[in-house]
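Changelog note: in this version the structure field was regenerated for every chain. One regenerated record is shown below for reference.
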Amino acid sequence: MTTYDFTPLFRSSIGFDRLPLLLSHALQLDESTTSYPPYNIDKCSEDEYRIVMAVAGFGTDDIEIVSEQNKLTVRGEIKEREEKNYLHRGIAARSFQRQFDLADFVKVNGAELKDGLLVISLKREIPEEMKPRRIEIGGGGVTRLAEKSGGKKGEKQTAA
């Protein structure tokens, strides 16, 4: 196994303690065990994402979605199996567990299962106190920077 030293990346970074863990975790993934079920990750807008998983044969009672601190886990296990005499079985019905690492402030908005596709909606919601603000030198005043959609470019809003 090749070892990579990421130390130079963190000389001017503060608070990215999770990044080395994420990078080492990504290097250790075995793609052959993480290929089921297939999925897409769509970027719908600046702060909205969608995970679309192909879970044919699974019902809403067979899938569990758990969101915890910076991690989303999707588990699937068909609880009621009918014993049938298949001539050909091409639809996989094996259990699975897939984990996604989420960035800070990314929350799950909801999930929907339709036509064999599980769609999980995600949105980044940055708290007001975490948004960019301008610090005035010497005046002691703090002003919020105008957002893209609210206010004109260069316009300042006084923080409360």
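Spot check on this record: Residues 151-157 have pLDDT under 50 and may be disordered. The chain has two domains: 35-81+88-125, 129-158.
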